[in-house]
Amino acid sequence: MTENIEIQVFNKIKKARHGSLFFVDSFASIANPKAVNKALERLVISGDLTRVAAGIYVRPVNDKILGPILPGIEEIASAIAKRDKARILPTGSYAMYKLGLTTQVPMNIVYYTDASARKIRIGKQVITFKKASSRNVSGIGDISKLAIQALRTIGKDNVKADELNKIKELLKQEKPYHLQHDLKLAPVWIRKLIEPVKTDLNK
After folding, report:
1. What's a Pfam family this protein contains (predicted)?
2. What domains does the chain contain, in order, with CATH numbers?
């Protein structure tokens, strides 16, 4: 029976592309969590799967030179959000890193979420999902929602001219409607800083 479960789990994995992420509940239609866990552990031992974190597995991409290539933090966070049917938003130093305001990759990567708060360790890094209100994760612009979070992190009285100029340049690539939508969610002081960009985009 156990061997049959492992075969079914493996067959489902083989149908997915290399680099695909799996959770225990990805196989809920095959068996109960305990049995699936055992099957996944055996597949890890055989090398058919790699465990990237507790309860999270990947069908690894094998590069001839680099060897197994694991998914990035962004892919893992997005997969968790998709599983939980949640919205997530990079915040803190990670939002600044994604915008290029810092070159230092943060060890503790923080996302706001409208799902449950949790921490997940990925190697030496930690993904922290912080429970936030629906309003805080309602941004729709790829650049504008990051810009707002980055400015929140820097702080009203600590924004340097070069940081603000870089943010304004990036925001010129944002869709006007998305920027207008996201500004309504931002604190007043951030709106005042970014309003000139919105005016330029609407010309």
Report:
1. DUF6088
2. 2-69 (1.10.10.10), 73-201 (no CATH)
State in Å, rounded, how far the first CA of the chain is from the last one.
Answer: 67
Position with higher pLDDT, 112 vs 202: 112
198 compared with 165, residue with greater pLDDT: 165
| pLDDT exceeds cutoff 70 at 36 | yes
